[in-house]
Every structure is written in C-alpha cells, then in structure tokens.
Amino acid sequence: MHAFFLSLSKLMAWLGGLMLTALILLVCASVLGRELNGLLHGETMSALTPGLATWLLDAGVGPVNGDFELVEAGIAFSIFAFLPLCQITGGHASVDVFTNYLPDSANRGLRLVTDIVFAAVMVLIAWQLWLGLLSKKSSGQTTFLLEMPVWWAYALSLTGAVVAALVACYIAIMRVRETLTGTAILPADLGAEH
Fold it and tell me: Of 20, 18, 4, 14, nearest to 166 (Cα)?
C-alpha cells in the first residue's frame, strides 16, 4: 500500500513541477513581450525601423493576455500537487529545538497528533474546494480577461487537494496502527533538509 501512495505522490509532484515550469515560461514570455512592446512603441524603434516595429506590433508582440489569471490557477494546483510527497516522506519543515530533548515515545505521540490534524485539515480543505467548485460552476463566474470559467481552477486545485487528503489520511491511519501495535510500519521520516 505504501508503494502505491508513494508512486501517486511522486506523480503529483511531477505534475506540479510541470505546471510550475509552464508557469515560469509563461511569465518569462509575458515579461519579454511587455518589454518588447514598450521598445517597439518607443521613438527610437519607430525612427530606425518603422516597418519592422509596425509589423511586430501587428503580429501581436506584447504581454500574454490573462497571464496573471493563468498563474493564479496554476500555482494553486502546484501547491496541492507537492503536498502528498512532502507528507509521505516526512519532508515538512519542523522546528525541533524542544522535541530533541523529549523521549522517543513523546516524539511518536507528537507525530501521531500532527499527522491526524494534518489529515483532518486536508480533508476540510478538499471539502471546501468541492463546495467552492459547485458554487462557481452554478454561478457561471468567469475570469475577467480570458473569460475562463473559474470552476476550472477549482477543479485543478481539488484534484491536488484530494490526493493530498488521501495520502494524509493514509499516513494518519498508519501512525495510529503504529501506536496501537507498537511497531514501525512507515519508513522513518526523512525530514526537511537544513
């Protein structure tokens, strides 16, 4: 079972990484287009190469229309896409100044509580995204520039949130089993690199 959730988490992380890469390229293209547009509208380019400047402007050189709307939707998905891998590998950042001095049993208890709370929060977030998706879909709300249905962004985020909630619930259940049986079921946490 652990191998399945680990593979699913890695797949989501890859999808989140692909989304971030696409968003980076989009923002770079938009910034470059905005700068070129400003240069082409300037007096220097109009005086030196009026035909080229007019041709490039007519071709549509400029910022990507609705770039911030796409970035907003894509970033939300990416955040949720990275959470499952972070949770299953124990990669969340932690401050262990005080817990280093606690006995192992206390640290296991803290880990159990935090994993249960994290799972509950992820289920709540996924549920709220589902309700938001239904609300946005029924209202027919669209984005300002692209007129893209807002529920599409909710659907993307919901996909990542549902996988994150499933992985978080799996981890919480395994922590409860570890506590009840007194045996280690999950691999040791890798922890965040410092």
Answer: 4
Q: Is 161:126 a contact under the CB 8 Å cutoff?
A: yes
Whether residue 89 contacts residue 189, with contact meaning beta carbons closer than 8 Å, is answered with yes
Per-chain mean pLDDT for the chain: 90
Give the model's confidence band at 190: pLDDT under 50 very low, under 70 low, under 90 confident, else very high.
low
Mean pLDDT value of segment 45-61: 81
Helix (H) / strand (E) element for 115: namely helix 104-139
Tell me, yes or no, whether 157 lies in a domain. yes
What's the pTM value of the predicted model, to 2 decimals?
0.86
Could you give the number of structural domains in the chain?
Answer: 1
50: part of which helix (H) or strand (E)?
A: helix 50-58
d(CA 122, CA 83): 10
* Within a domain: 191: no
Does 129 fall in a domain? yes
Q: Tokens for 137, please give them.
A: 């879909």
Domain coverage including residue 19: 2-92+99-181
Residue 188 in domain: no
